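Memo to structure team: turn this sequence into structure tokens by end of day. - J.P.
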Amino acid sequence: MRRRGKAGMMTPQDSPFLFRRPLARRLVLRDFRSYAALDCRFGARLVALCGENGAGKTNLLEALSLFSPGRGLRRVDMGDCARHGGAGGFAVSLELETEDAIVQLGHGLDSSGAEGAAARKFRIDRVPAPSATAFADHLRVLWLTPAMDGLFMGAAGERRRFLDRLALGVDAEHGARVSRLERALRNRNKLLEEGVSDRRWLDAAEAEVAALGVVVAAARLETVSRLVALIAAGRDDDSPFPWAEIVLEGELETMLLGSSALDAEDRYREALAASRRRDAAAGRTLLGPQASDLVVRHGPKGEAARACSTGEQKALLTGLVLAHAKLVAAMSGAAPVLLLDEIAAHFDARRRAALFDALEALGSQVWMTGADPAAFRELAGRAEIFNVTPGRIEPAG
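Reply from structure team:
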């Protein structure tokens, strides 16, 4: 009998190949970033894209990242993805193979609307879909980019955004709830700024903030709890990618840990009412999930991540992303597609070899980029390696 972890979740000792393993077989781009037109086919679990800086490697990863809810790995306005000199829109089509079917997914920006208004479009097997959230039934997309290297040294907001991406990997609706919470907070802040004296308006705004805040905080706590359990089950002090000790800190999170969600919502709403004068003076709401922080420590060393060396931080972050990929597979029943931008650039040969072995063991399709082809030399025969030049992608060799 297989051992199962928390809430029936498969442990890392269970084979990832029990999960569904979506495979991107064909990617078609039109007027996306630097690509006027591209039609490329793939067949391997490991895909390496090599090319000079500015050749368009990250653009390919970005096109794939937009099959996930949100604004993709660069977090830009969709208009910025349209090719300069193009018609103002773009289209991305992905042929995805699973164990029992082939599905065609598409997203794009249609600039043919009235008065030039552009609208995002989504399709599944050429049938319109309401949003990118619908793609979660077919694939989950995770990523790690160089912009995330400063995660442990940066502001708490960057770590909250990282945590929300983790939560979104297992709950495709989480991003929409975070967006609604942000709108509710802006509404309350505006009422405080305007000095609204009618208490009923503030009561209603704070009721909405409290309800959404508890849901968002609870989802983050659940994600952290499951990730902690998975990390503990596969902990290895000698791994080149050290295990992380993670804790979500915040006043609302403390309320949730000590009471039911309904009680925490009532207490949070009362705290918001009591802090109106303070929040008005600050110009923002000081209490809630928008003020929490994800605290990360280097497990084997017992040291705060922010105090570790740059190389240790990179390895720690990579270990977290690998653990999250396993969690997504366990929770969703499907191995995620993993996008790793410039992943091997700052690792020594030992860590690169360990990384490639770990990626192979995931059962995911993994897309990697790098400027130096030598970084992927060990993948010969194990991966598809492509040369990327402006507007083109061709098999290496």
